[in-house]
């Protein structure tokens, strides 16, 4: 068989496989191009899951008529000029292959005009073959229409799932794009119906509200942190917003949605003491990192990136999240009444892609978008999330919402009312309210319920303290402190423990040997693949099993974590206190008074080391309302 050089069209089709996997990938590429063209309004329309029809309209700066053909050539781009530019990319595209790929597997029509040109250009290219190039009258900006995707690659077409599944991928993608670019007004129309609309007012919280709804938008904590010239900003969910997988962890690097193990780990470590195992938080934040400190040229879809200094990125995210969470002391407050008033919704008009930017937003009427001949009349007023009460045009739409939503923190009411459950809500409490020496002086332990929950009265609030969680928390904090201060140091084991290790584990131990010694371990090699442990940090008492040691060693597996000592210390303390605490123990008066006093003086008394709340708060006001002593 002789070796042949493939023709350009075949090369394009092969390469298209990398960039254009499914309709959502076409949309990703075209929307990224629109953003790179500085559009601030982008409309995306699809039919039949994008397989039949995709139209993307933007109000960006358009393509010059002389460049239209070249834009569809492989490796042609206006975004970088040379190799050097590759090291500081701030645009979303730079490979110059998206349009070539899309045009090789679909029927593409492009209409575009730049501001300085009197007329625009219409260009049709199907399966990589040019069909039409003509002048047309059109507004400034660009419209791409892609029909019959994969019509000439039946093998790929066969792999496509149903329109419904493809639509799922598309919505997910557009949600991420909208969250990544709050400065752009996105409109997504599927089969003639508006699915998403964002304001483009550069308010991330509004975007989160448009995508995830009120429940999420109401339970956010702002995050804003800088470290070594990098910045993180956005919102993270209060811990109770957690999910069972990572779908709600959204983060953007210079406007690009990415996935990163370092960031994943930093997020989850940041929430470590607040969430249980296999619970993942809600986060949506932006990272601003200088283009030269990151390599985005790792994969054709550009979702993977390589940071020059992973440890610093880890610190930025970890510390940012930790400080945001600590700022808000999270005591779940239990309301005995359902909230009557919710945050008002604000309805505001938003612009269309071809409107003159931002200014010509008409106050009251409807505007039919250009090029969307078959879409129904569209009401341009959309919802935004607002915390301030707006005088004129808000509608208390939420009153119409069913109030009997599922309950997150079911609790039982006092004995004399029938059993009911109530909706728990996390409120930010002043850290000082239930902490510190003045709290110790003025609180009163009223009694205990079900051998588990202490009722504590403090000014106009009363608190329920879970004895088991409180005990664990106090013990844990005490252990961390002692370990850190090296108050009590090593304990000799009654019987030395032999731990068999893999070679990899062995070398991990060797790397971190110093930390183990510092914490009170006395360990010797025991042949090639085993260690013998003679002493352990005092917190283990006189026993330690091999599995515990392995778990501690596993915690050190990630190469990018700088603060290994803290992690080790954390693991040891939480492991030891788990072993030490038992539930439902009856405490003597002296013991429980001491326990609650100890809890009150902790830095963060509100969650046990495994993320469960230790304290829930209720107000006297709620109680008085319940007994109709006051009208509310
Ligand atoms: N909506 C648009 N508005 C203005 N110019 C555009 C638009 N879409 C594409 N272009 C121009 O066409 C060129 C080619 O686009 P293409 O997406 O193929 O490559 P790229 O964006 O440069 O790189 P990548 O392949 O990484 O996306 C761009 O560099 C840009 O100059
Ligand atoms: Mg591109």
TrEMBL record:
Superkingdom, taxonomy of origin: Bacteria
SUPFAM superfamilies listed in its UniProt record: ATPase domain of HSP90 chaperone/DNA topoisomerase II/histidine kinase, DNA mismatch repair protein MutL, Ribosomal protein S5 domain 2-like
Coiled-coil annotated residue ranges, if any: none
Molecular function via GO: ATP binding; ATP hydrolysis activity; ATP-dependent DNA damage sensor activity; mismatched DNA binding
GO cellular component, one term: mismatch repair complex
SMART domains, alphabetized: DNA_mis_repair, MutL_C
Membrane-spanning intervals of the chain: none
GO biological process: mismatch repair
Pfam families in the record: DNA_mis_repair, HATPase_c_3, MutL_C
Listed InterPro entries: DNA_mismatch_repair_CS, DNA_mismatch_repair_MutL, DNA_mismatch_S5_2-like, HATPase_C_sf, MutL/Mlh/PMS, MutL/Mlh/Pms-like, MutL_C, MutL_C_dimsub
Domain spans labelled MutL C-terminal dimerisation: 445-587
Keyword DNA damage annotated: yes
UniProt keyword Glycosyltransferase, yes or no: no
Residue ranges occupied by any DNA mismatch repair protein S5 domain in the UniProt entry: 208-326
Alphabetical UniProt keywords: DNA damage, DNA repair
Function recorded in the entry: This protein is involved in the repair of mismatches in DNA. It is required for dam-dependent methyl-directed DNA mismatch repair. May act as a 'molecular matchmaker', a protein that promotes the formation of a stable complex between two or more DNA-binding proteins in an ATP-dependent manner without itself being part of a final effector complex.
HAMAP family named in the record: DNA_mis_repair (MF_00149)
Annotated family: Belongs to the DNA mismatch repair MutL/HexB family.
Protein name: DNA mismatch repair protein MutL
Gene giving rise to this polypeptide: mutL
């Amino acid at each position: 068989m002789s070796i042949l050089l493939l023709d350009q069209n075949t090369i394009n089709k092969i390469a298209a496989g990398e960039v254009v996997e499914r309709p959502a990938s076409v949309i990703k590429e075209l929307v990224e191009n629109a953003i790179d063209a500085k559009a601030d309004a982008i409309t995306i329309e699809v039919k039949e899951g994008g397989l039949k029809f995709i139209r993307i309209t933007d109000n960006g700066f358009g393509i010059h008529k002389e460049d239209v053909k070249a834009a569809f050539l492989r490796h042609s781009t206006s975004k970088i000029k040379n190799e050097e530019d590759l090291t500081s990319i701030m645009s979303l595209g730079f490979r110059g292959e998206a349009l070539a790929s899309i045009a090789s597997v679909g029927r593409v029509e492009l209409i575009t005009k730049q501001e300085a040109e009197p007329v625009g250009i219409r260009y049709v290219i199907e399966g990589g073959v040019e069909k039409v190039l003509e002048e047309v009258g059109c507004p400034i900006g660009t419209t791409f229409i892609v029909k019959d995707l994969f019509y000439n690659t039946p093998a790929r077409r066969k792999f496509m799932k149903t329109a419904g599944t493809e639509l799922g991928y598309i919505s997910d993608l557009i949600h991420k794009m909208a969250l990544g670019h709050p400065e752009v007004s996105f409109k997504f129309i599927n089969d003639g119906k508006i699915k998403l609309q964002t304001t483009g007012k550069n308010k991330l919280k509004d975007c989160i509200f448009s995508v995830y709804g009120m429940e999420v938008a109401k339970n956010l904590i702002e995050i804003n942190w800088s470290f070594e010239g990098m910045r993180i900003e956005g919102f993270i969910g209060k811990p109770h917003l957690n999910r069972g997988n990572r779908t709600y962890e959204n983060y953007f690097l210079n406007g690009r949605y990415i996935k990163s193990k370092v960031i994943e780990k930093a997020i989850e470590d940041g929430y470590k003491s607040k969430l249980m195992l296999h619970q993942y938080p809600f986060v949506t934040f932006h990272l601003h990192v200088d283009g030269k400190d990151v390599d985005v040229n790792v994969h054709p879809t550009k979702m993977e990136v390589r940071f020059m200094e992973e440890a610093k990125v880890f610190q930025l995210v970890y510390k940012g999240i930790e400080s945001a969470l600590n700022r808000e002391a999270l005591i779940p407050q239990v309301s005995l009444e359902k909230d009557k008033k919710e945050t008002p919704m604000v309805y505001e008009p938003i612009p269309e892609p071809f409107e003159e930017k931002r200014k010509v937003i008409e106050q009251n009427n409807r505007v039919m978008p250009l090029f969307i001949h078959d879409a129904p009349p569209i009401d341009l007023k959309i919802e935004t999330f607002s915390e301030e009460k707006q005088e004129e045009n808000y509608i208390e739409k939420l009153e119409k919402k069913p109030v009997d939503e599922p309950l997150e923190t079911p609790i039982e009411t006092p004995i004399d009312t029938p059993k009911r459950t109530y909706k728990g809500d996390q409120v930010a409490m002043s850290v000082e309210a239930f902490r510190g020496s003045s709290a110790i002086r003025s609180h009163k332990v009223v009694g205990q319920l079900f051998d588990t929950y202490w009722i504590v009265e403090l000014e106009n609030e009363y608190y329920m303290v879970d004895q088991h969680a409180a005990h664990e928390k106090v013990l844990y904090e005490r252990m961390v402190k002692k370990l850190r201060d090296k108050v009590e140091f090593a304990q000799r084991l009654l019987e030395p423990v032999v731990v068999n290790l893999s070679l990899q584990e062995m070398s991990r131990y060797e790397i971190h040997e110093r930390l183990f010694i510092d914490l009170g371990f006395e360990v010797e090699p025991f042949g090639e693949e085993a260690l013998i442990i003679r002493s352990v940090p005092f917190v283990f008492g006189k026993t330690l099993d091999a599995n515990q040691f392995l778990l501690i060693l596993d915690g050190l597996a990630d190469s990018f974590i700088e603060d290994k000592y803290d992690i080790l210390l954390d693991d040891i303390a939480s492991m030891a206190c788990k072993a030490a605490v038992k539930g439902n123990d009856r405490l003597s008066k002296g013991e429980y008074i001491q326990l609650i006093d100890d809890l009150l003086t902790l830095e963060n008394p509100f969650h046990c080391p495994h993320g469960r709340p230790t304290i829930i708060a209720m107000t006297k006001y709620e109680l008085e309302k319940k007994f109709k002593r006051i009208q509310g």
